[in-house]
Amino acid sequence: MDLLSRVLSLIPVSGRLEVRCHFGAPWAIEQASAAVREIPYHVLLSGQAVLEHGEGPSEPLIAGDIVLFPTGDAHRLHDGSGRQPAALAERRDVSLVVMENEGAGASADILCGRFLIGAVPDRLLREHLPDRLVVRSAENGGVTSNGAGEAGASVCNTRLTRLIGLMREESVDEGPGSEALVNHLSAALFALTLRFASGSAQPPHGLLALAARPRLQPAISAMFEAPDKPWTLDQLAALCNMSRATFVRQFQDVIGRSATDMLTDIRMTLAGHKLVESNLGVAEIGEMVGYQSNAAFQRIFKRLIGVTPSRYRTLGGKVEAV
């Protein structure tokens, strides 16, 4: 199983399309920080926009661009004119809120929604993705993250374009089952967007870049397949036919964190999944993910997840990220 499939099999992600915006300039979308386990996204169906996020430079967006915020940060999209946005009017269709204004300038059509993370520890997803990810599905598009330069186009852009087109059609011409269908399409958008990004010529720093490094794959596969083993950096390096120093450097360069941190996140994700989905004892689960000492497992789980394994199980995995 490839890295992306492994992660998505452990961390279920569903989608929810909520708002369709029909704007004429001047316009703006202001979005506050997302709730726990939510990743906001926007799809620019037509027109142009400017994205502002954090302290970094603004980024121009064109039709076909998809932007998502894995850490749920506050952000702003606008037409770039600098003028006071026109007043908004809101109406409700069968399954979507439609936001419109009376701006007389250049038009823009935008889909806004959320990806919802299931009740498992999400550090493996959030800690290894950029704060902001922009995927350009239009022809000759690419990928940017946190202001990085564009990458080469991928064959995925055709599939993304078709998927976005279907979401657009269902959001306009609502028929029986449209709400359920468009939410399923939204979930597919998450997986396909990450595939597009990981397969680009210059994938963003982190998990997506790691997916494109075949020399490091044996170590990643070993972490997922045998998390119970007491892996050392020397052993993981040997699996990749590298020296320890080369392995440590390449892993750190690609993902920005150590292989040991990655292994711990995999173990905590697997443990959280077992706590919610099985009746196995806490100590038994800890042993399954590589901790012979129940006390050590409980200590690390609480430090990273925020609650003890028993409390996590009682809450059904519904705890706030730490």
What does the model show?
- With 322 residues, this protein is α+β, with helices and mostly antiparallel strands.
- The chain folds into two domains: 3-201, Jelly Rolls (Sandwich); 213-314, Homeodomain-like (Arc Repressor Mutant, subunit A, Orthogonal Bundle).
- Helices cover 39% and strands 22% of the residues.
- The protein has helices spanning 3-10, 123-126, 156-172, 178-198, 207-211, 217-225, 233-239, 244-255, 259-277, 282-288, 294-305, 309-314, and strands at residues 13-24, 28-31, 38-46, 48-52, 59-62, 65-68, 75-78, 88-92, 97-101, 107-117, 133-136, 143-145.
- The strands form two sheets. It has an eight-stranded mixed sheet. The protein has a four-stranded antiparallel sheet with strand order 2-7-4-5, with no helix packed on it.
Summarize the structure.
The protein is an alpha+beta fold and 322 residues long.
Keywords, separated by commas or semicolons:
8-stranded mixed sheet, alpha+beta, Jelly Rolls, 4-stranded antiparallel sheet, Arc Repressor Mutant, subunit A, 12 strands
